[in-house]
Specification:
heterodimer; A: about 425 residues; alpha/beta; Rossmann fold; Herpes Virus-1; 6-stranded mixed beta sheet; 3-stranded mixed beta sheet; 13 helices; about 35% helix; globular; B: about 750 residues; 8-stranded parallel beta sheet; 7-stranded parallel beta sheet; 32 helices
Chain lengths: ~425, ~750
């Protein structure tokens, strides 16, 4: 149906490879694309997602304002106060690749959508939690397969997942939990243990008692969250409730992305879960390009620039990671600084209420200069106000400021007041 | 919270009230004010019980001259739930009002549920416990024990008896368990204490039978005052309960047993004649004067009362030809002989009581008047002969039961003799049924005796039919819808399979392989898309067997098993309980399961499939009764002649209420959600659909009708995703919840 390939957002390296192989086919396909332009629009623009059926069965355009409020409500649900967070996370991502993942209610299939979004999630995860580790487990044909060990390198996870796509058989949540627990059990106490299950299946086919597996997870203080693709399953709800995780169901691809990314910021940590302790870390220096050295991670002679472990002088290619020789945590200071914003978040913006005099309203967003709603000829949607600097922002900028920038442009432009908290 | 309802202060134990609860209270209050009867339908999950309890107890507080609240439930489990609710309400009222709000509320059940005697309470069946109790508590046993200390007595009954009228329960709410605990602590028998305390209680909760079955009601409910309010909860099948209370079935075994009983009784009479002839003579004299004065009998000697209704029992002397014990036994022998002969009929016979009596008179010389007394005469004889083991004489009691009913009623009954089961014509299994056709007979005394009777249930649609069936004039008839914060139920009418061919369980279509396959595909598709539990209801056991067989051959069952485990209800209770238990376990552990069940079966009536135990219920077909059944035909004829209810109207009404009852199993509270699929093209027709209860109809969108399997699947997927999103349960603003402040405002929501 869809003219795009199975991995519409695949990395360029793959695309190049494919180009080389399918050069001839591509032209024919290109021609086919032109002939069926309506189809491409259908697949790319997702026009059906912009429509909603009302009570009388009529189709209506989506209510943008209501939808934006709904999304904001989800963001605001996270407490904005200064709370203790588990900054050093060990997260096992359990991806369900059972028969149900081959269903096509998400386009082109659940599996392809999940794979693409998991890639986004992994990148976002390491961006927000540079000190953390992640591993992937696949559920397929009744067993749990460990795709990657817990490690800090996003690229290796993404490659491993891409390489092993293919749906088959039943999913066994119990096997997945047991394998995840085995991986997370030896983690030191300061690490925050988490399991995130991306579940397509509505049933779990277990060899033993899943309630025992859940109890074991609870005992090991593993926070298990589930993101479902189809409907609410009781056992997943129980798992999340007992282990302190969340259980959410995606209604569309965009929603699934939001739900997955909700797991990117570090979750709140309880005092008894993670006692404060000092951790030994190394801040390696970057070697200039051109100096040949044997890389510890690839076991190969490399010429490009790399980092050198300050303790054992081994060479590693990317940061953050664990030294392959002396297993010290290696990272750079910007990584550490990036984790900082979780502790001092930007205060959530308030929605502007159309009560005060609209004469002095700024017509554009302070950050992006796009037109704001509420004035004559303005856009649709919500208008937001920063409680600290009182500047007006649009919905998209609100999302960027709170999700990736973690700095309010308005507050930064203002002459600093001495009592402001940093951030 | 506390609020004013048309001048009555209502105490309600929760912070919030649903709008439909408010209107419900209003209707109940109006019925009580008018001292009339009410017929109210409100869906399950809207807090019907607490609304009723709160309104009526508040009414009692405001009008101290009002009598008791008598709350009739169908099962012991429901009784306990009501008592728990009442306890909450009571705690709140006492907090608000102090001591003056104290009430005494108790549940009454059979000896089996209340006995605390160490050995007898361990007996399995109800009859055994009853008989065991009588052996220890009968007057003659106790007087014999006074002379001979070796005879065993029940310590608890003796403890209770010693206290006499001083044995009282302090005010409070007592569940069956509380009664037992209290009884143990005091050393009193909880059963007799409870029966004694009915006179003093403000709220009594017991089973339907205690009110409707004249045999039981004559003993238990005799002394209740006129001002009482009687509530029948979950009363959608009340007409059937009424009919069952007055119907008797006799089988070959019963008659054989009755003959054995007669021989035994004959021996006992002979023995008494030799040893204690005075007793028999005393009984004879008593019978000359009139019927055994049951009122003077001690409580512990009472057995079941006359099966006929109190008004119909003649207050006159027992006819001369059965006053002597041996004459009576000879009379019964003749009667049993006659019944046996009739039972040997080769084809189905159906007749009215009049022609039956005529034939009886001609061939056996038994007249109706004598027959009328046969139950009481047997009762009196057994007391005289000091027989405690009533269980042993069960067969003979049944025969006398039959005799008395036939002798008393000439209208509204039919006698049907079937020599074999319709489904197995080669196996002789004769059965003689005395079937009551008129449901208004048994409930008539209740309406006449009590000031207000409230009949309520989640499904009473079409509500206009009930007053005609039960032959009464309610002052208020109302059906309430559910106010919802989200669409927590999603009914759909599926009329076609994916191949666009219609599906139905109509007789000429049901065995069509295309229909069977389409039904199967529907379940396979749904099993893929719906999490946890799915419940399927079929129209009958035989249809379920047939369709499961074909699904097995087509490989559909195998496909279902890939997604969910399959469990089946059978006619065996133990097996079904086991299947249900495993079904729940499969739902709990995430494997998911499908339960195949039958409309009108035990599961459809009493088992809840709430939350994840039932996310979807599929009603395969319209559950019409077996229309070739003689009893049903006789009843339909009677309804048509007496109440002018058309046959078709009644059949449809009965089928749709069963269907509504089945699908209603899936949703038990507002925070729950579930889908319902009516899989038959006949639901598409207005005359069927419009008979569904209001709370289903209001949720049945036009876009959810006349669906095919793939359309239904699409709707199901969307719906399940939508329902899985988090929602706020408190929504005072949208008007689906009322708090105290909202109720102080003038009420705009008058129900027309």
């Amino acid at each position: 149906m869809s003219p795009a390939g199975p991995h519409p957002q695949g990395p360029p390296a793959d695309a190049l490879l494919q180009d080389a192989e399918e050069d001839g086919d591509l032209e024919a396909e290109e021609a086919g694309r032109d002939a069926r332009a309506w189809e491409r629009e259908y697949a790319d623009e997702r026009s059906w997602e912009m429509l909603q059926e009302d009570d009388a069965g009529l189709l209506r355009a989506l209510d943008v304002t209501a939808q934006q409020r709904e999304r904001r409500r989800r963001h605001l649900a996270a407490p904005a106060a200064r709370i203790r967070r588990g900054m050093i996370r060990y997260l096992v991502l359990v991806v369900d690749l059972s028969r149900a993942a081959a269903e096509v209610d998400f386009h082109p299939s659940r599996m392809a959508v999940v794979a693409a979004l998991v890639e986004v999630f992994i990148r976002e995860f390491f961006d927000q939690n540079p000190l953390s580790h992640l591993g992937i487990i696949a559920l397929r044909a009744g067993v749990a397969q460990r795709l990657t060990e817990l490690s800090g390198s996003p690229q290796s996870h993404i490659t491993a997942l891409k390489a092993s796509l293919g749906a088959d058989g039943e999913a066994s949540l119990q096997n997945g939990l047991d394998l995840a627990r085995a991986a997370l059990a030896p983690i030191p106490a300061y690490g925050h243990r988490e399991v995130v299950v991306v579940s397509s299946a509505l049933t779990t086919c277990d060899p033993g008692d899943i309630h025992a597996a859940i109890a074991a997870c609870k005992k090991h203080r593993i926070r298990c969250s589930v993101v479902g693709l189809a409907a609410e399953v009781y056992i997943c709800a129980t798992l999340a409730r007992l282990t302190g995780g969340t259980y959410t169901i995606a209604t569309s691809e965009g929603h699934l992305r939001d739900l997955l990314l909700e797991h990117a910021p570090p979750p709140p940590a309880l005092q008894q879960d993670a006692p404060a302790s000092l951790i030994r870390m190394g801040f390696p220096q970057r070697q200039p390009d051109g100096a040949a050295s044997i890389c510890a991670c690839h076991a190969d002679l490399r010429l490009d620039g790399a980092y050198v472990c300050p303790r054992c002088k081994a060479r590693v290619c990317e940061l953050p990671t664990e030294c392959h020789v002396c297993s010290i945590t290696l990272m750079s200071s910007p990584h550490l600084a990036r984790s900082y914003h979780h502790l001092f978040p930007v205060p959530p913006y308030d929605e502007w209420q159309a009560s005060s005099s609209s004469a002095a309203l700024p017509a554009t967003c302070f950050a992006c200069q796009a037109g704001l709603p509420g004035v004559a000829g303005g856009a649709t949607g919500v208008r937001l106000v920063c409680p600290r600097c009182a500047r007006h922002f649009c919905f998209d900028c609100d999302a960027i400021v709170h999700e990736s920038l973690h700095n309010c442009p308005g507050c930064e432009c203002r002459p600093a007041a001495p009592d402001d908290p940093p951030g | 919270m506390k609020f004013n309802l048309e001048g009555l202060t209502v105490y309600f134990p929760y912070e919030y009230l649903y709008p439909e609860q408010y209107s419900y209270m209003l209707e109940v209050k109006r019925a009580l004010d008018a001292k009339g009867h009410g017929l109210l339908e409100m869906p399950t999950g809207t807090g019907k019980t607490i609304t009723l309890l709160s309104l009526i107890t508040s009414y009692q507080l405001a009008h101290p001259d009002m009598g008791k609240l008598i709350y009739c439930t169908r099962t012991v489990h429901e009784m306990e739930k009501v008592l728990e609710e009442l306890r909450k309400l009571q705690a709140y009222q006492e907090k608000e009002l102090g001591k003056q709000a104290q009430i005494l509320a108790l549940g009454l059940s059979s000896r089996k549920n209340l006995c605390i005697h160490p050995t007898i309470s361990g007996e399995g069946s109800r009859e055994n416990v009853d008989a065991g109790c009588r052996k220890l508590t009968a007057t003659w046993v106790r007087s014999a024990a006074a002379e001979n200390p070796d005879i065993e007595l029940c310590d608890f009954f003796e403890g209770y008896e010693k206290k006499g009228a001083d044995a009282l329960l302090p005010a409070g709410v007592y569940t069956l368990h509380d009664m037992k605990v209290f009884g143990r602590q005091k050393g009193w028998c909880p059963y007799f204490l409870a029966r004694h305390m009915i006179t003093f209680a403000n709220v009594v909760i017991y089973n339907y039978q205690y009110m409707l079955d004249p045999k039981v009601a004559g003993v238990i409910s005799r002394e209740l005052e006129k001002e009482c309010v009687v509530v029948f909860d979950e009363a959608h099948n009340i007409d059937n309960v009424c009919i069952e209370a007055l119907s008797v079935n006799l089988r070959q075994q019963t008659l054989d047993g009755a003959q054995r009983n007669l021989t035994k009784l004959g021996q006992v009479v002979e023995k008494f004649k030799a040893t204690d002839a005075d007793r028999l003579r005393a009984e004879y004299n008593r019978l000359v004067e009139g019927l055994a004065q049951r009122g003077t009998l001690p409580q512990n000697d009472q057995m079941l009362a006359n099966p006929a209704l109190p008004d119909d029992i003649l207050r006159e002397a027992v006819p001369g030809n059965i006053r002597r014990a041996e004459h009576f036994l000879a009379f019964l022998k003749r009667f049993v002989q006659y019944l046996k002969r009739r039972m040997g009929a080769q084809q189905v016979e159906s007749e009215g009581p009049l022609s039956f009596l005529d034939d009886l008179n001609n061939s056996a010389g038994i007249d109706a008047k004598t027959l009328k007394f046969c139950y009481d005469r047997l009762h009196s004889l057994m007391l005289t002969l000091e027989i405690t083991d009533t269980e042993e004489f069960h067969h003979l009691t049944l025969v006398c039961d039959f005799g008395t009913l036939v002798g008393t009623y000439t209208q509204g009954f039919a006698i049907i003799i079937e020599p074999f089961d319709e489904r197995m014509p080669h196996i002789s299994d004769p059965v003689m049924q005395l079937s009551c056709l008129d449901s208004s007979l048994a409930i008539k005394p209740v309406f006449e005796r009590f000031q207000s009777v409230i009949i309520t249930s989640g499904t009473l649609s079409p509500i206009e039919l009930y007053p005609r069936l039960l032959n009464f004039n309610p002052v208020t008839i109302q059906s309430f819808a559910m106010s919802l914060t989200r669409d927590c139920l999603c009914p759909m009418v599926l009329s076609r399979g994916s191949d666009q061919l219609p599906v139905s369980t109509k007789f000429d279509m049901r065995s069509d392989p295309g229909v069977v396959r389409n039904y199967g595909r529907l379940l396979v598709e749904m099993a893929q898309a719906v999490p946890d539990g799915i419940v399927c209801f079929f129209v009958s056991y035989s249809y379920m067997d047939a369709i499961i067989n074909s699904w097995n051959e087509m490989g559909i069952l195998k496909e279902i098993m890939q997604h969910k485990l399959v469990f089946i209800e059978t006619q065996d209770v133990v097996e079904t309980t086991l299947a249900l238990d495993n079904y729940r376990r499969a739902c709990d552990c995430g494997r998911g399961a499908v339960f195949f069940s039958v409309a009108r079966g035990k599961v459809a009536e009493g088992i809840d499939f709430d939350r994840h135990y039932g996310r979807l219920v599929i009603m395969y077909g319209v559950p019409f009764q077996y229309t070739l059944s003689r009893i049903l035909r006789a009843r339909l004829e009677y309804l048509r002649d007496t109440f002018q209810i058309k046959e078709n109207d009644f059949l449809t009404f009965d089928a749709i209420r069963q269907a509504a009852q089945c699908v209603g199993r899936v949703i038990r509270s507002k925070s729950d959600y579930g889908m319902m699929i009516f899989a038959d093209k006949r639901y598409q027709r207005h005359d069927k659909r419009s008979k569904l209860p209001n709370w289903i109809l209001s949720q049945l969108k036009d876009s959810h009708m006349n669906l095919s399997t793939d359309m239904a699947l699409h709707i199901a997927r969307e719906y399940l995703r939508r329902m899985a999103q988090p929602f706020d349960s408190l929504s005072v603003d949208t008007g689906t919840l009322l708090n105290e402040a909202a109720l102080q405002r003038p009420q705009p929501m008058e129900v027309g």
